[in-house]
Structure formats: C-alpha cells, structure tokens
Amino acid sequence: MILSIRNQIPGTVVSVTSGEVMATVKVRLDGGQEITAAITLEAVKELGLAAGSSVRTLIKSTEVALATGAVRGLSIRNRIPGTVTEVTTGGAMAGVKVTVAGGELTSAITKEAVTDLGLAAGSSVVALIKSTEIALASV
Asked: Cα 81 vs. chain centroid, distance in angstroms?
C-alpha cells in the first residue's frame, strides 16, 4: 500500500497501556527516540500490538509543529530533536524537512512561522507531535 503520509518512521513497540476505549502505545523509533501514540483499543487488537512488535509510525506533515528551543508547560509529550535540511515556501505555507535520528520528518507550517522562527537549513529544531496524531501500521 502506498500512502500520501510523508512521515513514516519504523520502530518497535516498547509497551501498550490499555484503557476502556483507547490505548497508549510507546514506540522506540529506529533512531532511539521514544514516542507515544494514542490509538483505539480495537486497533491495538486488530494490529496484534504488544511489546516487541515492529511498527511504522505514520504522521501527517500538518500535525508536526516545530520549536526552536526547549518548550515548557506544554502537554505534547512527543518532542523529537532534529536539524532543518530544507525549507520550501509558497504563497502562504511552507514545507520544512527535518533530519532526526533514524529518519526524516516533514512539517507543513505557515510561511509566516518560518520567518518568525528564522528557519533555514542547519537550524536546530524540536518536532512536536500530539500522541493522538500518530497512527501505527504493523510491519
């Protein structure tokens, strides 16, 4: 299956914490970072997810926010450090490619945000991704 989601990073499930309807799945990405995905309990069962399962994390570029430094007082748990490799701007929006350990992320943000943050190739950033915006695919 070919997907339009640009951000697809492989990893291994570390743990699954089940609730009534939803579960949090902690994944260690191939680059060593740990991220958490919040998915339905039904999806956990259908995918057969358990510690040790190989997965691919899927994240839409519009769900990747960028910060230029440490962020405090924010509920977003998934914070992945990286380096900007490319910035492509259009009339209103921009695509920012960020190299992270073990892969690459693309962020779709406003052109104004790129300017305000001073983003350019070589800029250090932290990718911020809500756990509810991460999908998982079994491998």
From this structure: 11
